[in-house]
Amino acid sequence: MPILAANHLEFLSRSPEQTRRIGMRLGKLLNPGDLVCLSGDLGAGKTTLVQGLAQGWGSLDQATSPTFVLVNVYHRPNQESLYHLDAYRLENAMEAEDLDLDNMLENSPLIIEWAERIQKALPLECLTIQLRWVAEERRNMILSPAGERYENMVAELRRSAFGGG
Question: Please, what are the domains in the chain?
Answer without folding.
Answer: 16-160 (3.40.50.300)
